[in-house]
Design a protein that fits this description.
Largest sheet: 6 strands, mixed
Low-confidence stretches: none
Mean pLDDT: 90
CATH class of the largest domain: Alpha Beta
Number of helices: 8
Radius of gyration: 17 Å
Number of strands: 10
Helix content: 25-40%
Strand content: 25-35%
Distance between the termini: 23 Å
Strand order of the largest sheet: 2-1-3-4-5-10
Shape: globular
Number of domains: 2
Structural class: alpha/beta
């Protein structure tokens, strides 16, 4: 079974971490999606982004289908607040947790050029690689979470940020095929959209762009330089 990397990524931040570890460990990357497949590995590395201090629902669905001996959790977030997601995910795990990390990256909504290189600290990831070779079960502490983080997070994201289709759209269907949430059709999003911006990034015709609310613009001013938080 060996090592497998399971990743959900919207704008590409989490995927860039997954690719780094894949290269170092010579491990396969499996995209996390909604399906009924059961997954198993001796060591499962689960990588995902934090949205509004919450776990993406597609990741929760996946965790119910994950088997194996050991697990590592890596959450990427936009340098403002990660909430308590790693602890929450650890409570859903079947395999023993042997390592975890919060990796701060450029906030997706503050980076208008979504093709920019995704930068992150690699030293914590090197320590995780070392731990995989000498596994030891750990328990995560609880972290502070905003009291309102669970208050309709998807709705709040839709209000704060609009995804708009322009005349470049040729109805190719790529955005629909690549969306993990069945939240877009011909460039028009629906109520299932969590604003991960995968569609905006992947559109070959630059037919989608974002419009931020004033409240979101003010919120993004809270972005700070933060270091990774590592649990071993």
């Amino acid at each position: 079974m060996g090592i497998k990397i399971f990743c959900f990524s919207g704008s590409g931040n989490s995927l860039s971490v997954a690719k780094y570890l894949s290269e170092k460990l010579d491990a396969e990357i499996v995209e996390i999606s909604y399906d009924e497949t059961l997954y198993e590995a001796k060591v499962s590395i689960v990588i995902f982004p934090v949205y509004c201090q919450n776990i993406p629902s597609v990741v929760i669905n996946f965790l119910r289908r994950l088997k194996g001996k050991y697990a590592v959790l890596i959450a990427t977030y936009g340098k403002i607040s990660h909430g308590n997601v790693l602890y929450e995910v650890s409570q859903m795990l079947g395999p023993d947790l042997i390592g975890a990390a919060y990796i701060p990256m450029k906030h997706t909504y503050s980076d208008l050029n979504l093709n920019n290189k995704h930068l992150f600290e690699t030293e914590p990831l090197q320590k995780i690689i070392e731990r995989i070779n000498f596994p030891q079960k750990i328990f995560l502490p609880k972290c502070k979470k905003n009291l309102f983080a669970g208050f309709f997070p998807t709705w709040r994201s839709r209000v704060a940020l609009k995804i708009i289709r322009n005349s470049n759209c040729n109805s190719c269907g790529l955005c629909e095929n690549k969306c993990s949430f069945n939240a877009i059709k011909k460039g028009i999003t629906n109520k299932k959209c969590i604003r991960c911006l995968r569609c905006v990034k992947l559109c070959p015709n630059n037919a989608l762009y974002i419009k931020k609310s004033l409240i979101l613009k003010m919120y993004l001013h809270n972005e700070k330089d933060k270091s990774a938080e590592l649990y071993l």
